[in-house]
Amino acid sequence: MGPYLVSELRFIGRVADGATETKARLILLKDMESSVIAEELVLIKNGGETNPVNEILGVLREGLGKNEFLSHTSYRPDVAYLRHGGEPSGAREVYSFAIEPIGVITDGGIEPNRAIIQPRSPVYLLENRDRPFEHIVKGRDVIWSDAYFEGHPSWSIPFDKGFLPYHVGVYGSTGCGKSWFTRHILVPLYRKAGYKVLILDWSGTDYVPLLKSDEVIKITEIALDEESILSYFQDKTFGFARNDVIKDCFDEFLEGWISRVKEAYSNSENPAEHLYNELKINVEIAVSSIDHRGSKASAQRAFRRIFRKLKPSDLYPVMGVLSVEELFQELEARGLLAVDMSGALTEAKLGFFLSLSKYLYGLMEAGKNLEVALIIDEAPQYAPWDAHGIQAETCEMIKNLAALGRKRMLNLTLVAQGIKGEIGINAAVRRNLNTHFFGRIHPLDAGGEGGASEWLSPYGISPSQLLQLKPGRFYFAGVMNPSPVPLLITYKPVDHGGVQSG
Ligand SMILES: Nc1ncnc2c1ncn2[C@@H]1O[C@H](COP(=O)(O)OP(=O)(O)OP(=O)(O)O)[C@@H](O)[C@H]1O
Ligand SMILES: [Mg+2]
């Protein structure tokens, strides 16, 4: 694509006084203020339409309308006239926008601008046929996504493929469209890049309904570690009715749990009932063999209480037999898999995540390039700001995966309602994410350190704009964006009907 011809461009105004090499303001031609809007792309022919010093691509932000006659802090004849119902003069009205330079268009692609942007330089609005992204991606290895530049459905958004394993954050308040964006844009993009995609659907409501049934595995089908099963039973039995003999007996029974479950599945019509009876008999024997009369009576009471509450159907959530290795093989074969994590306790979900991440870490340590994208929705559940207990472990694990994943082609995509603080992602984890999608944010995220405004304010995007974004609109910032300036992107939700493999 050659240089832009002035005759084919739409002239909208000129550069104002006080421009530098990185900042300029555009003064609009008369009446342009009603058609030219923020977030549009423009071209500056720096120095004049003929023989410009360079041609700079930029994005419009921070619109401003000035009319000196109408100062609201001082009293002027026009203000007096207005107060009595007259129409004041627009003769000295000025409309302007800040231009955030994306870079200079060169044969090799976009370069940072180092020449002073000359006041009076003509500015042109880029329209659909001008295809600015062809300049932005020159010299880069990109994948074109189904997302597009807001207002221009024909301008697909490119992603720099090499930065996939530098990890991604998707943020925005509830209902702003994070899960949909991830499902409709990021998942197909990762597949196009040759990555297999494993989605952890915390509540089973965000992705599972959009997928085919053979692309979903229920967490209850996956074998849990004994620790998690014990805490599941602890929860279901009022802490084993606080009886140590019974607790020990459960503990012992769980030692060969998986083989017992497999045996129950192969030997019985009703495996849960089979297992339940086996468990009950074991506990009963242990209780009846207590010598001391008082302890025996209290253990018997505990026994009755526990088995009145615990039902055979309660065993199903812990009767998974699929190992993490088998899950991974399934992923390799299918290319896309979601784990429906509904129906399990938080500890069991996090326990599963730990086993999964240890397995992936092991593969990477052994030198395997994974080419896997792991999508972690509700990320603060795994890496909260003040992680302790099992969450401290999952948080640490995510950091380790992130670090090693950069070299071993593992992409982590963390989805969260908040960015920082109590509603956000743990700061140490967040530092490992290098591409960000900011949707409509929660007011708690509007200011302060580590929030969206820290990422976006330097580019002229204010927190008040972030508070008002419509669903499905995201600012795309960071290393995967070939444009050094964050851009506002969106997409039309279409049913992919499952993503093609390959
Ligand atoms: N591109 C879009 N265009 C129009 N509407 C959209 C778009 N994306 C999402 N929506 C609407 O927003 C709703 C919420 O989307 P989604 O479930 O992805 O939100 P979320 O940010 O994941 O919320 P939560 O934090 O509660 O999980 C969707 O049901 C849909 O109606
Ligand atoms: Mg969601």
Characterise this structure.
The protein is of the alpha/beta class. It folds into three domains: 6-132, no CATH class; 142-222 and 322-490, P-loop containing nucleotide triphosphate hydrolases (Rossmann fold, 3-Layer(aba) Sandwich), CATH 3.40.50; 228-318. It contains 15 helices and 18 strands. It has an eleven-stranded mixed β-sheet. A six-stranded antiparallel β-barrel has the order 1-2-5-4-3-7. Helix 12 links the parallel strand 14 (372-376) and strand 15 (410-416). Helix 11 (346-365) runs parallel beside helix 12. It is elongated, with a radius of gyration of 30 Å. Bound molecules: adenosine-5'-triphosphate and magnesium ion. Residues 178-179, 206, 377 line the site of magnesium ion (MG).
Instruction: Indicate the CATH class of the largest domain.
Output: Alpha Beta
Give the biggest beta sheet: 11 strands, mixed
Class inferred from helices and paired strands: alpha/beta
Summed up, the helix count is 15
The total number of structural domains is 3
Strand content: 15-25%
Task: Count every beta strand, where a strand is a DSSP E run of 2 or more residues.
Answer: 18
Strand order of the largest sheet: 9-8-18-17-16-10-15-14-11-13-12
List cofactors, ions and other ligands.
adenosine-5'-triphosphate, magnesium ion
Low-pLDDT runs of 5+ residues are 496-502
The CATH homologous superfamily name of the largest domain equals P-loop containing nucleotide triphosphate hydrolases
Q: Please tell me how large the radius of gyration is.
A: 30 Å
CATH topology label of the largest domain: Rossmann fold
Q: Any guess at the CATH architecture of the largest domain?
A: 3-Layer(aba) Sandwich
- Whole-Å distance between the termini? 30 Å
Inertia-based shape: elongated
Q: Helicity level, as a percent range?
A: 25-40%
Task: Report the mean per-residue pLDDT as an integer.
Answer: 89
